[in-house]
């Protein structure tokens, strides 16, 4: 496992941006909810505590036991994260006179501290908070201030524990990236070697070890996620991966043929399934958009299940799941109630009983594109305009017929 930064999420709308900024420095990081802290292994080089919509003064406010980390690992608390530490260790957090949302300038910066190295006097930062730290605990010292906020940043003496009131992860904090680099590289000592090429090498090795001689089936949509996931799996296990690309009769003009061709050029073992008529039959007479969407989903599952059955001994289902889907399903606010509604065991199609392999489930979309480029997937696939599953059906009012699709395509 690569070295990483652990981001503990207290529910802020900016948490994913913290992860994006860290990864832009070629350092791997993961977001975990504050109440499900993973085991702290030696790969974890530092911890960032996110902001939160809550106030540390609220009853039942999100809390965390930091004693096992403090002094052993560098910690950076952002906004709520910093207030939480201040309050926990004997300081005082009070409501600000006015809720501060917007630009502010650091008029006092103590450059002696690694966190603030090369930050310029007057540096613009972004504030978004209703509380403020009024009194710091013993052993905590102020290292940056704005005219309105005295404790804009603090450090704990004798340990690499820091708190900042502003949000370095948003672009309005003009030197925010510099501050995050100071933390991640200079304080945590991360090597900045997490690149798309390195991801490809390590993921292909992991897939080889995990899949061995097993067979995998995977649906391709022509979109970037499934294409990149399939190419990675193919690198690992070759033709033990069977890809299925379904023509549902709702794709754009010439799209089925063109996409199928590019998959073949990539060397993928791909079956093109002409299921147009099955979809048109199922859609016949349906006019309600939700009913149409459901019919398309149902027939897709039936067609895919039929194809998966033809592959003898297949054990795995490949999927193009990406990191935002994963974060959503384990978020502080709880998983979306509808994500798994189709998982009523018993009625499951056979392919859903397969084990799932998701090689992209730690990546953001633009990282998936970078990995695609590293795999030399054609730009036409990597930069393809996103196209919804129900395809052209969403553009057609009333019932859907082959004739109407033909006009829509033109
Ligand atoms: N026409 C199709 N033929 C076969 N499989 C498909 C097809 N359309 C979608 N899929 C499968 O269903 C998954 C989800 O489809 P969706 O349209 O939501 O894609 P997505 O999540 O945007 O990912 P992608 O970037 O791969 O399109 C795809 O990743 C693919 O595995």
TrEMBL record:
SUPFAM superfamilies recorded: Adenine nucleotide alpha hydrolases-like (SSF52402), Class I glutamine amidotransferase-like (SSF52317)
Location of the GMPS ATP-PPase domain: 194-384
Organism this protein belongs to: Cecembia lonarensis (strain CCUG 58316 / KCTC 22772 / LW9)
Protein name per UniProt: GMP synthase (glutamine-hydrolyzing)
Keyword Ligase: yes
PANTHER family found in the cross-reference section: GMP SYNTHASE [GLUTAMINE-HYDROLYZING], GMP SYNTHASE-RELATED
Keyword list, A-Z: ATP-binding, Glutamine amidotransferase, GMP biosynthesis, Ligase, Nucleotide-binding, Purine biosynthesis
UniProt EC number: 6.3.5.2
MF terms in GO: ATP binding; GMP synthase activity
Pathway: Purine metabolism; GMP biosynthesis; GMP from XMP (L-Gln route): step 1/1
Top EC group: ligase
């Amino acid at each position: 496992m690569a070295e990483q930064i652990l981001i503990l999420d207290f529910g802020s709308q900016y948490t994913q941006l913290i992860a994006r900024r860290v990864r832009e420095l070629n350092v791997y990081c993961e977001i975990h909810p504050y109440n499900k802290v993973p085991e702290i292994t030696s790969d974890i080089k530092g911890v960032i505590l996110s902001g939160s919509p809550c106030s540390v003064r609220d009853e039942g406010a999100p809390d965390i036991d930091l004693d096992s980390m403090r002094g052993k690992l560098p910690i950076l608390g952002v906004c709520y994260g910093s207030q939480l530490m201040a309050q926990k260790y004997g300081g005082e957090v009070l409501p600000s006179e006015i809720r501060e949302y917007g630009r502010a300038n650091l008029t006092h910066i103590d450059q002696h501290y690694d966190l603030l190295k090369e930050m310029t006097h007057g540096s613009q930062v972004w504030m978004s908070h209703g509380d403020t730290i009024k009194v710091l605990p013993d052993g905590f010292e102020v290292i940056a201030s704005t005219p309105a906020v005295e404790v804009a940043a603090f450090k704990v003496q004798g340990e690499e524990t820091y708190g900042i009131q502003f949000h370095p992860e948003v672009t309005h904090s003009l030197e925010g990236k510099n501050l995050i680099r100071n933390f991640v590289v200079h304080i945590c000592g991360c090597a900045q070697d997490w690149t798309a090429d390195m991801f490809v090498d390590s993921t292909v090795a992991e897939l080889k070890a995990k899949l061995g001689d097993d067979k995998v089936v995977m649906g391709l949509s022509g979109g970037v996620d499934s294409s990149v996931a399939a190419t990675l799996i193919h690198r690992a296990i070759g033709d033990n991966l069977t890809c299925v690309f379904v023509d549902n009769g709702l794709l754009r003009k010439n799209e089925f043929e063109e996409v199928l061709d590019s998959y073949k050029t990539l060397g993928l073992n791909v079956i093109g399934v002409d299921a147009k008529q099955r979809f048109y039959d199922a859609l016949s007479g349906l006019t309600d958009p939700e009913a149409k969407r459901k019919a398309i989903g149902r027939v897709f599952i039936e067609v895919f299940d039929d194809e998966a059955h033809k592959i003898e001994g297949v054990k795995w289902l490949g999927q193009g799941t990406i990191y935002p889907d994963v974060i959503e399903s384990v978020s502080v606010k709880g998983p979306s109630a509808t994500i798994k509604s189709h998982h009523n065991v018993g009625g499951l199609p056979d392919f859903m009983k397969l084990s799932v392999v998701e090689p992209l489930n730690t990546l953001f979309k633009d990282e998936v594109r970078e990995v695609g480029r590293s795999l030399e997937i054609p730009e036409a696939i990597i930069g393809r305009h996103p196209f919804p599953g129900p395809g052209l059906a969403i553009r057609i009012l009333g019932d859907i017929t082959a004739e109407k699709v033909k006009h829509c395509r033109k």
